[in-house]
Design goal:
The chain is mainly alpha-helical. It has one domain. It is built from four helices and no strands. Helix 1 runs parallel beside helix 3.
Length: 132
């Protein structure tokens, strides 16, 4: 005769979810550093910057769903700004190479330096990103 197997679970408290606080703080710190390096930190509103900065520095336990939603919203804004910046730079590089090739064919040998001129690349990317 087989004995029934009893599976007992230890009592758990589902009202207090486990959150990796250090992981969240590391993510916030790296996002802030990256945003400052790429020059997109000041595209955020002052309140958003302060919220990220305080959450990264203070000893917090991230229990509030509203706080987590707000942080996710701000981080998604940063990601959108970063991809926009990368797209503008990629377009600027492509245009700088094309204009450089054309100018070299027309007899301007110094136009080869346009390909590595970061200010020129940024200008082209910003200027032509306004047009579809």
């Amino acid at each position: 005769m087989e004995r029934p197997v009893s599976l007992s679970l230890a009592p758990t408290d589902f009202s207090a979810p486990t959150v990796n606080t250090e992981g969240i703080k590391n993510l916030l710190s790296s996002s802030i550093r990256s945003a400052k390096r790429h020059g997109i930190w000041f595209t955020l509103a002052r309140q958003e910057r302060m919220m990220l900065d305080l959450c990264a520095r203070l000893k917090l336990k991230f229990r509030s769903v509203e706080l987590m939603r707000a942080l996710a919203s701000v981080l998604s804004k940063l990601e959108g700004a970063r991809t926009s910046l990368e797209a503008r730079l990629a377009r600027g590089v492509m245009l700088a190479w094309a204009y450089s090739e054309c100018a070299i064919r027309w007899g301007n040998p110094s136009a080869k330096s346009w390909r590595n001129d970061l200010d020129y690349i940024r200008f082209l990317g910003d200027f032509w990103s306004r047009w579809p």
